[in-house]
Amino acid sequence: DDGFSGKDEL
Amino acid sequence: MNLFRLAGDMTHLFSIIVLLLKIHATKSCSGISLKTQELYVIVFLTRYLDLFTRFVSLYNTVMKIVFIGTSFAIVWYMRYHKVVKQTYNKDEDTFKHYFLLLPCFVLALLLHNEFTTMDVLWTFSLYLEAVAILPQLVLLQQSRNIDNLTGNYVFFLGAYRGLYVLNWIYRYFLQDHRARWIPWISGLVQTALYADFFYYYILSWKKHEKLKLPA
């Protein structure tokens, strides 16, 4: 998921 | 979202507001590197390609649109505004910014999470953001006179990634214990590039003197 790569950040 | 992440985002936003304020209120972009600003346009466009395909939160979506929009506005002012563009220090903004683009792209092709267009470009944006400040720092070193707004802009822009580093430490130890090497290493490099600037910025602030970087 996005939190895994850090894509939930800006 | 923890407080460090929020503080980082707000600092980033604040740095952009300071820069737009300087340009809009003083009708001058002196001391600002157009090359760095153009690199930020590329950074935001390649990072936020997922704007319409991945929804994280309303907050994220709004911030992404704001970052893309303001980066275009700054470049537009510097290139096309008939008063502002005359204040651009073209002859001092000498850093060859395309030399940053190719190595970052090659590195993203080699080191990424998934070999997909979206993921390679996202990775590229992180590598590019880490070094995008270099033309700006070179320009500042050549400037005799760094005005307060320009100094503050660079300070907040640097502080933002430093706060993200604290956010990553917090997330790792207190939230999800996940290693995110690509943003971490890029973010550490990005923050480290400001070390010299931070030193002289804080020194000048303590002594109540004008900021000047040694050549």
Automatic annotation (TrEMBL), chain B:
Residues spanning the signal sequence: none
A GO term, aspect molecular function: ER retention sequence binding
* TM annotation in the entry: 58-77, 98-115, 121-140, 152-170, 182-202
Instruction: Determine the domain of life of the protein's source.
Output: Eukaryota
In the record, biological process GO terms are: protein retention in ER lumen; protein transport; vesicle-mediated transport
GO cellular component terms? cis-Golgi network; endoplasmic reticulum; endoplasmic reticulum membrane
Which InterPro entries does the entry link to? ER_ret_rcpt
Q: Where found in the cell?
A: Endoplasmic reticulum membrane
Q: How does it sit in the membrane?
A: Multi-pass membrane protein
What's the protein name? ER lumen protein-retaining receptor
Q: What organism, scientifically named, is this protein from?
A: Spinacia oleracea (Spinach)
For this protein's source organism, the top of the classification is: Eukaryota, Viridiplantae, Streptophyta, Embryophyta, Tracheophyta
